[in-house]
Amino acid sequence: xxxxxxxxxxxxxxxxxxxxxxxxxxxxxxxxxxxxxxxxxxxxxxxxxxxxxxxxxxxxxxxxxxxxxxxxxxxxxxxxxxxxxxxxxxxxxxxxxxxxxxxxxxxxxxxxxxxxxxxxxxxxxxxxxxxxxxxxxxxxxxxxxxxxxxxxxxxxxxxxxxxxxxxxxxxxxxxxxxxxxxxxxxxxxxxxxxxxxxxxxxxxxxxxxxxxxxxxxxxxxxxxxxxxxxxxxxxxxxxxxxxxxxxxxxxxxxxxxxxxxxxxxxxxxxxxxxxxxxxxxxxxxxxxxxxxxxxxxxxxxxxxxxxxxxxxxxxxxxxxxxxxxxxxxxxxxxxxxxxxxxxxxxxxxxxxxxxxxxxxxxxxxxxxxxxxxxxxxxxxxxxxxxxxxxxxxxxxxxxxxxxxxxxxxxxxxxxxxxxxxxxxxxxxxxxxxxxxxxxxxxxxxxx
Length: 447
Fold this sequence. Notes:
The protein is about 80% helix and about 0% strand. The chain is built from 22 helices and no strands. Helix 14 runs parallel beside helix 21.
């Protein structure tokens, strides 16, 4: 309590605001995690990220089996898949705001219990009604709520990175937390595929749902001790003051700056590709190459993303430490990712050889993982004091393609029966976003 009282006394003089902002966010040792705490919390968050992706992937890897069992058309499947993204954007900004204000650890664990529970009960909802229309309506409602619960997660990581990690290590910490995403895809793709065909599609929802609940509870019990909570209170006290005097002006500056919208736009375009492939790739391989083992194409491309995903932040930090500007670094990393990714998508839809298709896709995702230190990390540059809220807005726009893009893909597949059109449209959108970021993006701090 003595520490908090001292901060309150410091805040009595408004003239010291710039100094306090720098001290509270960039310099104060009592706010930043130690190296050991970075490892512990980074590992815990990575596991939670792996679980959130494993839960989210339960439906895509089960879509073909469920569509056959319940007589879903491609449009029906696309509607159920896309409904997740109707709710996902709605909690992004709220998540960033609550995390910046009260601490991301508090928000992450509560949300984790919520989306873990909704994952667990999903199979019960599927069988709640016998008629197809009532079934689909209930599933759409559950998926929207599920998206809202999962929407809290990633802005939390951005907020914790800005508030708890020293500036010189933020790139590495933020990008390595993307490793959990790949691990989640690998586990759900390999173990999930095995469980799917051994025990039925329902088992994945039960396993990953209960594991998410248990891990979220464990984080609250083991990691969130009194000392950690006091640190969150300390951050809140700073923001109570800083938000009142500068929060509104900061957002006015941000929304009028073209670099802010360049970051939003390329993230939107990149996520169009991510959501399309995440939702439809298992179906693409199953239909295009029937008889091939699903655990291979659901797992292999993600395995090779882990090392470059971890290396991306280290490479960016090294370039910046050697005097390369943050703007050039962000654009360089983003260019490697997008140009490789977009070009491959233009080719993959017309390929007929399973081995070549899988190899090309694996190579593409290996290289594209370097983009984690590109526009994805740009929120840390533009507005470090509001990183959680900025990432929330960025991720909300990034979720929109999941809401309509996934459904559009299903429509194209049902009426045009062309995977080539789906992938070509996606690649073109990525190129357009890249041009915008190259012209207007920056790594300089705006507010």
